[in-house]
Amino acid sequence: MQWTLVIPLKPLERAKSRLTASTGDTLRPGLALAFAQDTVAAAVACAAVKGVVVVTDDVLAGRELTSLGARIVRDEPAGGLNAALAHGAAAVRAGQPETALAALNADLPALRPLELARVLDSAAYFPRSFLADAAGIGTTLLSAAPGTELLPAFGAASRSRHSASGAVELPLADVDSVRQDVDTGEDLRTALALGVGPRTAAAAARLLIAD
């Protein structure tokens, strides 16, 4: 099964606000862009992915992610994360109604195409499924098979909300790069240890993150 991924991205000036304590406001927007660039680059390189749609109103991010092969959809609802994902999913299915969809976080800088393919191949067995984040509380990927609505419920404790909505949790091991989103300095240290993409590595080299 081939998938179209929908990736939401806030305007960079507001993105990854919880990283401010570690990065400061000057470097944080650039780091958020680097996360998204490495996420999109890995997604585009995944054999199970036929297209990547990024929902964002950020002009710089839109330009940079388009150059990596993403299609940009304006965040017209401006109603938050789940509204952006629903809007992106609707935009994809307006032209390709039978497309398999997966919502993917934009902050997966260590993402590896082969691990993403494993997750998507497992998701193909279920109408809706999700992958919990490394902390076991949130969600990094939510899938919807052809003919099935995405019904995103991201945010705090989204693992339990997606499970309650009927999505099947994917109990996969050895897909750490797909689980490791980055909200804090500790998350970033973990992602760096996994091995991040080149843009995040360059941006992170400008930081001194205290132990």
Question: Keyphrases for this structure?
Answer:
about 210 residues, alpha/beta, 7-stranded mixed sheet, 8 helices, 7 strands, globular
Count every helix, treating DSSP H or I runs of 4 or more residues as helices. Answer: 8
Shape, per Cα inertia axes: globular
Widest beta sheet: strand line-up: 3-2-1-4-6-5-7
Number of strands: 7
Helix content: 40-55%
Query: How many domains, as an integer?
Result: 1
User: How far do the termini sit from each other?
Assistant: 43 Å
Strand content: 15-25%
From the 3D structure, determine the CATH topology: Spore Coat Polysaccharide Biosynthesis Protein SpsA, Chain A
The protein's oligomeric status is single chain
Nearest-integer average pLDDT: 94
Element order: H for helix, E for strand: EHEHEHEHEEHEHHH
Structural class: alpha/beta
The biggest beta sheet, please? 7 strands, mixed
Gyration radius over CA = 16 Å
